[in-house]
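re: that complex we talked abt at group meeting.

here r the seqs, copy pasted straight from the sheet so there may be weird spacing, ignore it
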Amino acid sequence: MTRHFTLTLDCPERAGIVHAVTSFLVDHGCDIVEHQQFDDDVRSRLFLRTAFTCATADVDDLTREFAAVATEFEMEFDLWDERPTRILVMVSKAGHCLNDLLFRWRAGSLGGEIAAVVSNHEDLRPMAEAAGLDFVHVPNTADTKQVAERRLLELVEEYQADLVVLARYMQVLSNDLCAKLAGRVINIHHSFLPGFKGAKPYHQAYDRGVKYVGATAHYVTPDLDEGPIIEQEVLRVDHTFDPRALTSVGRDAEALALSRAVRWHCEHRVLPNGNGTVVFR
Ligand SMILES: Nc1nc2c(c(=O)[nH]1)N[C@@H](CN(C=O)c1ccc(C(=O)N[C@@H](CCC(=O)O)C(=O)O)cc1)CN2
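got the structure back, here u go
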Protein backbone atom coordinates (compact mmCIF):
# COMPACT_ATOMS: atom_id res chain seq x y z
CA MET A 1 0.00 0.00 0.00
CA THR A 2 1.41 3.42 -0.96
CA ARG A 3 1.87 5.53 2.14
CA HIS A 4 2.26 9.29 2.42
CA PHE A 5 5.01 10.94 4.44
CA THR A 6 6.25 14.46 5.16
CA LEU A 7 9.82 15.45 6.04
CA THR A 8 10.62 18.87 7.46
CA LEU A 9 14.07 20.05 8.46
CA ASP A 10 16.26 23.04 9.06
CA CYS A 11 20.05 23.15 9.21
CA PRO A 12 23.06 25.40 8.61
CA GLU A 13 23.14 26.46 4.93
CA ARG A 14 25.76 24.62 2.84
CA ALA A 15 26.01 22.80 -0.50
CA GLY A 16 24.70 19.28 -0.92
CA ILE A 17 21.71 19.33 1.47
CA VAL A 18 18.97 18.78 -1.13
CA HIS A 19 21.12 16.20 -2.93
CA ALA A 20 21.56 14.27 0.34
CA VAL A 21 17.82 14.38 1.08
CA THR A 22 16.67 13.36 -2.40
CA SER A 23 19.32 10.62 -2.66
CA PHE A 24 18.16 9.17 0.66
CA LEU A 25 14.56 9.15 -0.59
CA VAL A 26 15.43 7.58 -3.96
CA ASP A 27 17.58 4.94 -2.23
CA HIS A 28 14.56 4.03 -0.08
CA GLY A 29 12.19 3.74 -3.06
CA CYS A 30 10.35 6.98 -2.26
CA ASP A 31 8.67 9.32 -4.76
CA ILE A 32 8.69 13.06 -4.04
CA VAL A 33 5.26 14.63 -4.63
CA GLU A 34 5.89 18.15 -3.24
CA HIS A 35 9.09 20.00 -2.33
CA GLN A 36 9.66 23.48 -0.96
CA GLN A 37 12.77 25.11 0.54
CA PHE A 38 13.81 28.50 1.88
CA ASP A 39 17.36 29.73 2.29
CA ASP A 40 17.42 32.21 5.19
CA ASP A 41 20.45 34.31 4.31
CA VAL A 42 20.08 36.35 7.51
CA ARG A 43 20.51 33.32 9.75
CA SER A 44 22.40 31.21 7.14
CA ARG A 45 19.94 28.35 7.61
CA LEU A 46 18.07 26.22 5.10
CA PHE A 47 14.42 25.27 5.74
CA LEU A 48 12.93 22.39 3.77
CA ARG A 49 9.64 20.49 3.46
CA THR A 50 9.32 17.43 1.26
CA ALA A 51 6.15 15.35 0.87
CA PHE A 52 6.68 11.89 -0.61
CA THR A 53 5.10 8.49 -1.03
CA CYS A 54 6.64 5.10 -0.34
CA ALA A 55 5.19 1.63 -0.67
CA THR A 56 7.65 -0.19 1.55
CA ALA A 57 8.89 1.88 4.52
CA ASP A 58 7.29 2.97 7.78
CA VAL A 59 7.89 6.21 9.62
CA ASP A 60 10.00 4.73 12.42
CA ASP A 61 12.36 2.94 9.99
CA LEU A 62 12.73 6.08 7.84
CA THR A 63 13.35 8.24 10.91
CA ARG A 64 15.99 5.85 12.23
CA GLU A 65 17.74 5.61 8.88
CA PHE A 66 17.58 9.34 8.12
CA ALA A 67 19.35 10.14 11.39
CA ALA A 68 22.76 9.58 9.78
CA VAL A 69 22.05 12.23 7.14
CA ALA A 70 20.72 14.57 9.84
CA THR A 71 23.86 14.19 11.92
CA GLU A 72 26.16 14.86 8.95
CA PHE A 73 24.32 18.10 8.11
CA GLU A 74 23.42 19.14 11.72
CA MET A 75 19.71 19.00 10.85
CA GLU A 76 16.73 19.48 13.12
CA PHE A 77 14.20 17.24 11.41
CA ASP A 78 10.77 15.66 11.80
CA LEU A 79 9.15 12.87 9.78
CA TRP A 80 5.42 12.15 9.75
CA ASP A 81 3.23 9.53 8.17
CA GLU A 82 -0.43 10.15 7.26
CA ARG A 83 -1.78 9.80 10.83
CA PRO A 84 -3.93 12.94 11.26
CA THR A 85 -3.03 15.53 13.93
CA ARG A 86 -5.42 15.24 16.89
CA ILE A 87 -6.74 18.60 18.10
CA LEU A 88 -8.16 19.76 21.44
CA VAL A 89 -10.07 23.02 20.91
CA MET A 90 -10.36 25.39 23.88
CA VAL A 91 -13.04 28.10 23.96
CA SER A 92 -14.66 30.58 26.34
CA LYS A 93 -17.92 32.33 25.27
CA ALA A 94 -17.30 33.55 21.68
CA GLY A 95 -18.22 30.75 19.22
CA HIS A 96 -17.29 32.08 15.76
CA CYS A 97 -13.83 30.46 15.62
CA LEU A 98 -15.10 27.11 16.96
CA ASN A 99 -17.96 27.20 14.45
CA ASP A 100 -15.52 27.73 11.57
CA LEU A 101 -13.17 24.96 12.78
CA LEU A 102 -16.09 22.53 13.13
CA PHE A 103 -17.36 23.30 9.62
CA ARG A 104 -13.93 22.77 8.04
CA TRP A 105 -13.36 19.58 10.12
CA ARG A 106 -16.67 18.10 9.01
CA ALA A 107 -15.92 19.16 5.41
CA GLY A 108 -12.56 17.36 5.63
CA SER A 109 -10.61 20.56 4.91
CA LEU A 110 -9.10 21.29 8.35
CA GLY A 111 -6.19 18.92 7.88
CA GLY A 112 -6.60 17.34 11.33
CA GLU A 113 -9.09 15.58 13.64
CA ILE A 114 -10.92 17.49 16.38
CA ALA A 115 -10.88 15.17 19.40
CA ALA A 116 -12.86 17.27 21.92
CA VAL A 117 -13.81 20.80 23.02
CA VAL A 118 -12.78 22.19 26.42
CA SER A 119 -14.15 25.41 27.92
CA ASN A 120 -14.15 27.52 31.08
CA HIS A 121 -17.83 28.30 30.39
CA GLU A 122 -20.90 26.26 29.43
CA ASP A 123 -22.01 28.58 26.59
CA LEU A 124 -20.66 26.53 23.66
CA ARG A 125 -21.61 23.04 24.87
CA PRO A 126 -24.60 22.83 22.43
CA MET A 127 -22.39 23.73 19.42
CA ALA A 128 -19.78 21.11 20.30
CA GLU A 129 -22.26 18.35 21.16
CA ALA A 130 -24.27 19.06 17.98
CA ALA A 131 -21.06 18.21 16.10
CA GLY A 132 -20.88 14.90 17.99
CA LEU A 133 -17.93 15.98 20.12
CA ASP A 134 -17.24 15.65 23.84
CA PHE A 135 -17.50 19.00 25.63
CA VAL A 136 -15.51 19.29 28.87
CA HIS A 137 -16.23 22.19 31.24
CA VAL A 138 -13.10 23.23 33.20
CA PRO A 139 -13.72 26.38 35.27
CA ASN A 140 -10.60 28.57 35.33
CA THR A 141 -10.35 31.50 37.70
CA ALA A 142 -7.40 33.04 39.50
CA ASP A 143 -8.11 30.71 42.47
CA THR A 144 -8.50 27.54 40.39
CA LYS A 145 -5.90 28.08 37.63
CA GLN A 146 -3.47 25.36 38.87
CA VAL A 147 -6.28 22.76 39.21
CA ALA A 148 -7.69 23.79 35.82
CA GLU A 149 -4.32 23.48 34.11
CA ARG A 150 -3.61 20.06 35.69
CA ARG A 151 -7.02 18.95 34.34
CA LEU A 152 -6.15 20.33 30.91
CA LEU A 153 -2.92 18.29 30.80
CA GLU A 154 -4.92 15.18 31.78
CA LEU A 155 -7.33 15.90 28.89
CA VAL A 156 -4.44 16.29 26.44
CA GLU A 157 -3.32 12.78 27.43
CA GLU A 158 -6.86 11.36 27.59
CA TYR A 159 -7.71 12.55 24.06
CA GLN A 160 -4.15 11.94 22.78
CA ALA A 161 -4.08 15.50 21.48
CA ASP A 162 -1.07 16.58 19.41
CA LEU A 163 -2.30 20.19 19.19
CA VAL A 164 -4.25 22.54 21.49
CA VAL A 165 -6.09 25.37 19.72
CA LEU A 166 -7.14 28.42 21.76
CA ALA A 167 -10.18 29.48 19.73
CA ARG A 168 -10.89 32.67 21.70
CA TYR A 169 -10.04 31.04 25.02
CA MET A 170 -9.76 34.01 27.33
CA GLN A 171 -7.46 32.78 30.08
CA VAL A 172 -3.69 33.28 30.16
CA LEU A 173 -1.80 29.95 30.29
CA SER A 174 0.92 29.72 32.93
CA ASN A 175 4.64 29.55 32.12
CA ASP A 176 4.69 25.94 33.34
CA LEU A 177 1.84 24.87 31.03
CA CYS A 178 3.39 26.74 28.09
CA ALA A 179 6.65 24.89 28.71
CA LYS A 180 4.93 21.50 28.90
CA LEU A 181 3.04 22.15 25.63
CA ALA A 182 5.74 24.15 23.80
CA GLY A 183 5.10 24.31 20.03
CA ARG A 184 1.74 22.51 20.45
CA VAL A 185 -0.58 25.44 21.27
CA ILE A 186 -1.96 27.86 18.66
CA ASN A 187 -3.89 30.99 19.75
CA ILE A 188 -5.97 33.45 17.77
CA HIS A 189 -5.41 37.03 18.95
CA HIS A 190 -8.11 39.43 17.85
CA SER A 191 -5.79 42.17 16.55
CA PHE A 192 -3.10 42.64 13.90
CA LEU A 193 -0.11 42.07 16.18
CA PRO A 194 2.04 43.64 17.46
CA GLY A 195 -0.74 46.22 17.78
CA PHE A 196 -3.34 46.13 20.55
CA LYS A 197 -2.32 43.27 22.84
CA GLY A 198 -4.50 42.06 25.70
CA ALA A 199 -8.13 41.14 26.22
CA LYS A 200 -9.87 44.16 24.58
CA PRO A 201 -8.09 45.03 21.29
CA TYR A 202 -11.17 46.30 19.44
CA HIS A 203 -11.78 49.04 22.02
CA GLN A 204 -8.10 50.00 21.70
CA ALA A 205 -8.47 50.00 17.90
CA TYR A 206 -11.53 52.23 18.12
CA ASP A 207 -9.77 54.70 20.43
CA ARG A 208 -6.81 54.80 18.04
CA GLY A 209 -9.03 55.34 14.99
CA VAL A 210 -7.46 52.63 12.84
CA LYS A 211 -8.48 52.05 9.18
CA TYR A 212 -7.76 48.32 9.25
CA VAL A 213 -8.47 45.68 11.87
CA GLY A 214 -7.11 42.20 11.85
CA ALA A 215 -6.32 38.97 13.61
CA THR A 216 -3.16 37.01 14.35
CA ALA A 217 -2.74 33.26 14.76
CA HIS A 218 0.43 32.46 16.68
CA TYR A 219 2.10 29.76 18.75
CA VAL A 220 1.59 30.39 22.46
CA THR A 221 4.52 31.29 24.68
CA PRO A 222 4.61 32.56 28.29
CA ASP A 223 4.85 36.11 26.90
CA LEU A 224 1.27 37.16 26.23
CA ASP A 225 0.55 37.74 22.52
CA GLU A 226 4.29 37.46 21.73
CA GLY A 227 4.57 33.94 20.26
CA PRO A 228 5.77 33.14 16.69
CA ILE A 229 3.19 34.32 14.15
CA ILE A 230 1.78 31.71 11.73
CA GLU A 231 -0.91 33.71 9.87
CA GLN A 232 -2.52 37.16 9.90
CA GLU A 233 -5.65 38.59 8.26
CA VAL A 234 -6.76 42.23 7.88
CA LEU A 235 -10.00 43.97 6.89
CA ARG A 236 -10.64 47.62 5.94
CA VAL A 237 -12.77 49.68 8.32
CA ASP A 238 -13.45 53.41 8.76
CA HIS A 239 -14.76 56.08 11.15
CA THR A 240 -18.28 54.65 11.04
CA PHE A 241 -17.20 51.47 12.88
CA ASP A 242 -17.80 51.63 16.64
CA PRO A 243 -16.22 48.96 18.90
CA ARG A 244 -19.24 46.70 18.36
CA ALA A 245 -18.91 46.95 14.56
CA LEU A 246 -15.15 46.43 14.74
CA THR A 247 -15.73 43.31 16.86
CA SER A 248 -18.28 42.03 14.35
CA VAL A 249 -16.09 42.50 11.25
CA GLY A 250 -13.09 41.18 13.16
CA ARG A 251 -14.76 37.81 13.67
CA ASP A 252 -14.31 36.95 10.00
CA ALA A 253 -10.59 37.78 10.14
CA GLU A 254 -10.15 35.71 13.31
CA ALA A 255 -11.91 32.61 11.97
CA LEU A 256 -10.01 32.72 8.67
CA ALA A 257 -6.56 33.31 10.17
CA LEU A 258 -7.01 30.60 12.79
CA SER A 259 -8.38 27.93 10.44
CA ARG A 260 -5.56 28.53 7.95
CA ALA A 261 -2.93 28.37 10.71
CA VAL A 262 -4.39 25.13 12.09
CA ARG A 263 -4.52 23.49 8.64
CA TRP A 264 -0.94 24.52 7.81
CA HIS A 265 0.28 23.24 11.19
CA CYS A 266 -1.56 19.92 10.67
CA GLU A 267 -0.05 19.59 7.17
CA HIS A 268 3.42 20.15 8.68
CA ARG A 269 3.88 23.36 6.65
CA VAL A 270 4.98 25.58 9.58
CA LEU A 271 8.63 25.55 10.69
CA PRO A 272 9.81 27.69 13.64
CA ASN A 273 12.52 30.21 12.69
CA GLY A 274 13.77 32.28 15.64
CA ASN A 275 10.70 34.10 17.00
CA GLY A 276 9.04 33.77 13.60
CA THR A 277 8.01 30.98 11.28
CA VAL A 278 8.65 29.70 7.78
CA VAL A 279 5.28 28.69 6.25
CA PHE A 280 5.38 26.47 3.14
CA ARG A 281 1.82 27.25 1.99
N1 LIG B 1 0.56 32.12 27.83
C1 LIG B 1 -0.37 32.63 27.02
N2 LIG B 1 -1.67 32.36 27.25
C2 LIG B 1 -2.61 32.84 26.40
C3 LIG B 1 -2.24 33.68 25.31
C4 LIG B 1 -0.84 33.91 25.08
O1 LIG B 1 -0.45 34.61 24.12
N3 LIG B 1 0.05 33.37 25.96
N4 LIG B 1 -3.22 34.28 24.53
C5 LIG B 1 -4.53 34.29 25.17
C6 LIG B 1 -5.61 34.88 24.31
N5 LIG B 1 -5.65 36.32 24.50
C7 LIG B 1 -5.38 37.10 23.47
O2 LIG B 1 -5.26 36.65 22.34
C8 LIG B 1 -5.92 36.86 25.81
C9 LIG B 1 -6.81 36.24 26.59
C10 LIG B 1 -7.06 36.74 27.88
C11 LIG B 1 -6.42 37.83 28.36
C12 LIG B 1 -6.66 38.31 29.75
O3 LIG B 1 -6.19 39.32 30.15
N6 LIG B 1 -7.44 37.48 30.48
C13 LIG B 1 -7.74 37.77 31.87
C14 LIG B 1 -9.10 37.23 32.20
C15 LIG B 1 -10.12 37.71 31.23
C16 LIG B 1 -11.46 37.05 31.43
O4 LIG B 1 -11.64 36.29 32.36
O5 LIG B 1 -12.30 37.32 30.56
C17 LIG B 1 -6.78 36.97 32.74
O6 LIG B 1 -6.38 35.89 32.30
O7 LIG B 1 -6.57 37.47 33.85
C18 LIG B 1 -5.49 38.44 27.54
C19 LIG B 1 -5.25 37.96 26.25
C20 LIG B 1 -4.91 32.94 25.68
N7 LIG B 1 -3.91 32.54 26.62
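couple things i noticed - The chain has eight helices and 13 strands. Residues 166, 169-173, 178, 187, 189, 198-199, 220, 222, 224-225, 227 surround LMY7XDAE (CB under 6 Å).
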